[in-house]
Hints:
Structural class: alpha+beta
InterPro entries: CorA-like_dom
Shape: rod-shaped
Strand order of the largest sheet: 1-2-3-4
Distance between the termini: 62 Å
Protein name: CorA-like transporter domain-containing protein
Transmembrane segments: 334-357, 377-402
Domain CorA-like transporter: 5-188
Keywords: Membrane, Transmembrane, Transmembrane helix
Number of domains: 2
Amino acid sequence: MPLCSPLEITRKMMTRIFTYHQVMPSYLDFVLVFGSQNEFQDLRVSGFREQVLLAPPERALSIPGFGRSGCQYQLCYNLKSVGEVTPEDGPEVPAEARQWNIRQAAFHHQFDVLEGTAVWIVTESQHDVQDLVKEMAGELLNKDPKAFSTLGDCFRTSLSTHLLCCQWAAGEWRWYIQWIEGLVHQEIRLGNTSAEFRGRRNVRNYTTDNLQNLQFYEDRTKEIGMVLESNVDVMSSLRSFYEGLLGNRDVSLGQGAYNDVRSFAAQVNDVAHDLNVQIKRAQLLATQIADGKRLVLQHLQSQATERIERLTQSSLRLAGETHKMGPSSQKESLLMRVVAIVVLIFLPATFVSTFFSTDVVRYQPVDGSGSFSRLALQMWFAVAIPLIFLSLSAGCFGLLYAKRKQRRNTQDSVEQGNPEKFPGAFQEPGDAVKFR
């Protein structure tokens, strides 16, 4: 849903309206802010323009049939308010899921100081100001059906309309700031309390999302201060214009105009004072958010340090376990070599003994009585000793071949610059690996 909706008027319609009422060109600067857009890009556009024609009018400007004497003043300015976007149907959303929009309205007003005719043109994307003006006009007519019969009454009504616009601009800023304060408190509610008071169970792990949210809230808060300051400037210009209008000798607004302007100026001052209070509140909130950002950043750094320490401790623990396994592996390797040597020695003799016990070679007498045969013993030694020597030679040759192949692979890896395959290849002869 776009934040700003297109105006429900065509260019041709607007041109005819502005031409008929002779709207001052400066009003277009405020109207061009509106349009279909996804983000507010013209919040900095603010101002107050005036055009005063109170000297004896020229004949071209005087049109009695239209209620125009030619002696008039024109004002155009814009103000900004804020409102919560409430869904039409559905359950109530939580505070963090709510949305607030800053709404703009451009006002054009011209008043004929002789005829008492007034023209109001309000450009807004909503119907807030229109509804307020209709309600105010209805109340005035209900109280006094002749509320617009005299010049003084018309002038007083125009001041009331200006005041209504100022009050609309000061409407819900305090609730908007309070909403941001609640969200900021949720982001840093456990960050500004020492661990001994909040307990280990309540220690919160912060993420970069918390930092990004605080940055978003800080931008919103600074935006609030900028918008409120522009509203205060416009209200001050509006008050100063009417105060200066009283000193103009060419203006005769009837009895009571002086008191009406003084009352209007006092009420505008009250509205501006309320906005100044909200400005200070927004500035304080921006300072708190900046402090919260620094605090969250410190927490993120401490959490990263803790993770690094845990990884370091795990690495040291693993290295210690590996170091402990080193002597055990050496013992097992030595034991396997001893077993291999024993097997190489006794396996040929066992084979020869088993072969000589078969019917292939028999030296026992036929009657089964026991006897000793020197020839059989000599034959056993003659066969077993060479086989043992051959098996030991084959084992030694295989061991030497494996070592030579490993040394050749290590040299090839060093020449190719690949130390990862053999980590000890680049170690100096005098170096030693140390473990804590």
